[in-house]
Amino acid sequence: MELLTLSIIVLVMLAAGLALQRPWQRHLPPWPQRAPFLGGGQPDSHAWSRFHVRYYPMTLLLIAFEMEMMFMYPWAVVYVAEGAKAMMEMGMFLAILSVGIVYAWREGVFRWQ
């Protein structure tokens, strides 16, 4: 009985909410004006178009720096408790990331054209 009462209350409130929203509902323009790209214009390229390959090494470098900073802050707290063990672990982590940075350097990511 309680479930039936609750269901009826929910349905009545839902119907009231839909009925009250109707007068203030915004009337939408026709489809070409609602298209999500360039205010109704046709797209120039396909959504699955590829990016130039020169952006990928720069992206890898950004990820390397971001991962480094993300793990350096909590490591500072752990270093106080663990000491030399935490220092060795962070040294290995930074060595792995430095391989990515050296690769990016070799690929010329740091040269701005």
Topology, please?
Blueprint: H1 2-21, H2 31-34, H3 55-82, H4 84-107
Features:
single chain; about 110 residues; mainly alpha; flat
Account of the 3D structure:
It is a single chain. With 113 residues, the chain is mainly α. Helix content is 67%, strand content 0%. The chain is flat and about 65 Å long. Helix 3 runs antiparallel to helix 4 (84-107). The model has no long low-confidence stretch (mean pLDDT 80). The chain is built from four helices and no strands.
Structure, briefly:
The protein has 113 residues and is mainly alpha-helical.
Largest sheet: none
The global form is flat
The number of helical runs is: 4
| Helix vs. strand class | mainly alpha
Residues in helices, as a percent range: 55-70%
Strand fraction band? under 5%
Q: What is the H/E string?
A: HHHH
Give the strand tally. 0
User: Mean pLDDT, nearest integer?
Assistant: 80
Low-confidence stretches: none
N- to C-terminal distance: 74 Å
Rg over CA atoms = 28 Å
